[in-house]
Amino acid sequence: MQFALPPRKSPHPLPSARSTRLPYHRRKQLKTVAVAAIAIVTILYLLSYFTSSNSTSAVASSASTSGVVIVTVLDRKVLSESFIKKIVTNREDYAKRHGYTNFFASTSDYEDAIGDSPRSWATLPAVRHALAQNPSSKYFFHLSAHALIMNPTKSLKSHLLDRSKLESLMMKDVPVVPPDSIIKTFSHLKEKDVDLIVTRDGEDLSPGSFILKNGDFARYFLDLWFDPLFRSYGFAKAETHGLDHIIQWHPTVLARTALVPQRVLNAYSKDSPGAGADGTYKDGDLVLRFPGCEAKGGDCDELDPYYMLWQRKAKNG
Q1: Which domains does the chain have, with CATH numbers?
Q2: Sorted alphabetically, which keywords does the UniProt record give (predicted)?
Q3: Is the link from the previous residue into 251 a cis peptide, with omega within 30 of 0?
Q4: Are the beta carbons of 100 and 66 closer than 8 angstroms?
Q5: Along the chain (317 residues), what's the average pLDDT of each consecutive run of 10 residues?
Q6: How far is residue 132's CA from residue 130's CA, in Å, rounded to a whole number?
Q7: Of 99, 176, 202, 306, which has fewest CB within 10 angstroms of its CB?
Q8: What spatial distance separates the first Cα and last Cα of the chain, rounded to whole Å?
Q9: Amino acid 63: pLDDT
Q10: CA angle (222 as vertex; 113, 136 as ends), nearest 5
Q11: How far apart are CA 141 and CA 11, in angstroms?
Q12: Whole-number Cα distances in Å, 33 to 28, 30, 41, 42, 82
């Protein structure tokens, strides 16, 4: 029996067309490298976005492990450097006394995010930014740039955040939005369930001063509040009316919200309109806020005598 022999190879093979397809394992390696490269570029972009600050920004904190981060958003397009210096000095003194961290942000940092919405909406991405930079901190205290911490010796823990203290201050079964909202705060709410602490004035909830506990709820809440639907709705009071709506009509949020008396966290100056019952500043209150100045948008001459009063208290304290 004979077997066919394979053709003899020529010592000078003819040139053949080289395959344009890469081996499977090689293509798989290249695909993996490409995906990894895209992921790395995306991560670097996000890091640069959240950690960068432009020339109009005040100094923001680096990552901290302090129990409280104080978030202050400064609009450098309308506030003078001398006014900003007063606010920064006030916050730094308080943070140093109690081991807290300051997070100073500029409204201009979030212009792309807020678009054509009122600039006051910058509060929300600023607080979100603070959470991202300080993931180990437990509480985030947002305080308007038109406000002073007037009682430098009083810590937030002893004043409000201690379990028994908060339990005693929570306003239960009262209208969320004064004077007669049909939606009321939960009567069975406990301190352990609270993630948001806020006050109300004579007309609305008052987000110029609030405390938010770090966690999944905080991120969900800020994302919900900053939803484009609310920003484009045309609320007369922008984020304030957005907050009124969310807490009244979203039980998930109301169930995590503690309403406390106005002067606990958000006393108004005597010349500012809209204070609630017993909402006007009295000596010894922690915070003094100037909503009338916020409405004007610029510096606040009304703040000056109180700033000098605070300086004396800080010096003696």
Answers
A1: 49-316 (3.90.550.10)
A2: Glycosyltransferase, Membrane, Transferase, Transmembrane, Transmembrane helix
A3: no
A4: yes
A5: 40 42 50 49 42 41 77 96 97 98 97 95 98 97 98 97 97 96 96 97 97 98 97 95 97 98 97 93 97 89 96 92
A6: 5
A7: 99
A8: 113
A9: 63
A10: 105
A11: 83
A12: 9, 5, 12, 14, 52
CB 281 within 8 A of CB 265: no
Using DSSP bridges, classify how beta strands 139-143 and 68-74 pair: parallel, antiparallel or unpaired.
Answer: parallel
Give the per-residue pLDDT at 56: 35
Are residues 148 and 90 in contact, defined by beta-carbon separation less than 8 angstroms? yes
Count of all residues that appear for the chain in the document: 317
pLDDT of residue 296: 86
Q: Are strands 257-259 and 196-200 parallel, antiparallel or unpaired?
A: parallel
State how beta strands 196-200 and 205-213 pair. Answer: antiparallel
Residue 22 confidence (pLDDT)? 47
The SS3 of residue 240 is helix
Which positions ≥6 away from 258 have C-beta within 8 Å?
A: 166, 169, 170, 171, 185, 189, 191, 194, 196, 197, 198
Q: Which residue has the tokens 């959240």?
A: 50
The radius of gyration computed from the CA coordinates of the chain, to the nearest angstrom, equals: 28
Q: How far apart are CA 292 and CA 150, in angstroms?
A: 18
**pLDDT score recorded for residue 48:** 44
108 DSSP 8-state letter: G
Do 150 and 288 touch, CB atoms closer than 8 A?
A: yes
What is the pairing mode between strands 147-149 and 139-143? unpaired
